[in-house]
Structure formats: C-alpha cells, structure tokens
Amino acid sequence: MLLARQVALIHGGGGAIGGAVARALAREGAEVFLAGRSRAKLEVVADAIASAGGVAHVAQVDALDEAAVARHADQVAARAGGIDIALNAIGVFHVQGRPLAELSLHDFELPVRVYTRTNFITAQAAARHMVRRGGGLLLSLSTPVSKMAGPGYLGHCVACAGVEAMTRHLAGELGPAGVRAVCIRSHAIPEAAAAGSHSHEVFAQVAEPAGLSVEEMLAGAAAGTLLRRLPTLEQLAQTAVYLASPHAAAMTGAVVNLTAGFSLD
Question: What residue ranges of the chain have pLDDT lower than 70?
C-alpha cells in the first residue's frame, strides 16, 4: 500500500470531495481522521471506510474556529503519533453571477475571508506537528476561477487565487523542515454538485438566469474543455493519493491542474 502507516487529517471529510479523498487514502493504508460540522455526514464516510477494511475516526470541528482546530490536531497527533497528510476540503455557499456594480462588500468578502481563514487555520495546526516529525503534506483546493477574468466571480476569484498563493508561500517557508504544500485546482465535478449540495446552490445562481439547469450548465462547461469532459471525484481523489505518496516526494509549491484543459499552465 502506498500510504501504509500514514496519518491523514481531512477537514470537510463529510463532503463529496473530502469523503472521496478520505476513502481513497484509506484504501492505500492511511489512518484517516475526518473533521467537519456534521457528525452524521462524517459517520457515513467513516462507515464506508470501515466496511472496506480501513480505519477512520470522526470529530465535530468547525474549521473556522482556530482554537478548536488546533486542539483537534493535537488530539490526532497524540493518538496517532503525528500527522502526515492534511487536506482542507470545506465548502461554503457564496454569491456568484453578480456584476461588480451589484455586488455588496459582504458578498465579495465572504468567500475571501472564509477560504483564506480556514486554510490558514488548518495548515498552521497540522504544520506544527509535521515540522516536529520532519515531513508531511498540506493539501488545499482551488478552482480555475483563480485565473479567470470574470464576470460574476470576483469574490471566489480572489479567494481561490489567495489559496494558491498561500500554497506557494507555505512551500517556501516549510520546505526546509521537509513539509510540502500542494494545491489541486479542479474544474467543477458533476458528482459533487448533486441537488442539495452547496455547489449545486452556488451553480444555480449562474445557471437559472441563463435559463439552464445546473446539469445543462455543467454539460456546457465540459464542452468548453480541451478533453470535452469534466474531472470526476475518483480522479481528484487519486490525484490526492499520488501527491501524498512517495512518488510525489519532490513536488511542492505546485498548483496541480485538474481542469481537463479548461485552463492551461
């Protein structure tokens, strides 16, 4: 197994992306600690991991609460002996599809504040333990909107660009201690945008005024990529496995392009 005896801490572990990554890491032997605000969702993922022969633990933690995140990281490290992999996969509803003239300061600031704050908090809490062990991987997520010119995505654009910039900075600061930082920039994943999800609600703000369903909008997005398709949850999860494995041990400060050719580097 690629990740035998590795310890993974996943914030947003009950969501579609966090859950998919957790299951993939566990299949490769990692002991997984799932954190999030909904214990019920976390337990669904943990049960699936256990049923497949893996090991998972759950804890109700608000990834915007600095003290709670630090306390939980300390508990994970004390129980498992350290933290090798940390992923922030939380999601928050935010406004899209609104031009600058109609965008409130609050709606602009919310995704910027939430995504930069939570990634700072979770990275700091995990990095403390990684530095002591002499290595580890901080994983974050962004979208191609980080490089898009708009219109209608201003807050999300700045938030994603900020997460990518944080990745580069953390790589530079923590590299001498053996800690790597990598961001996965993924295009929209249809499986993660099922009805009732926060992604579906965000996309609906753009789709409905155009007279489209979310599914129709995503089909149009797929047609706009070089591969004429969007990434899947399993592809993102397996990318995370690769990045956490010894095969990617020389990779840090990178933004991994999982946009199916929508954006080019």
Answer: none
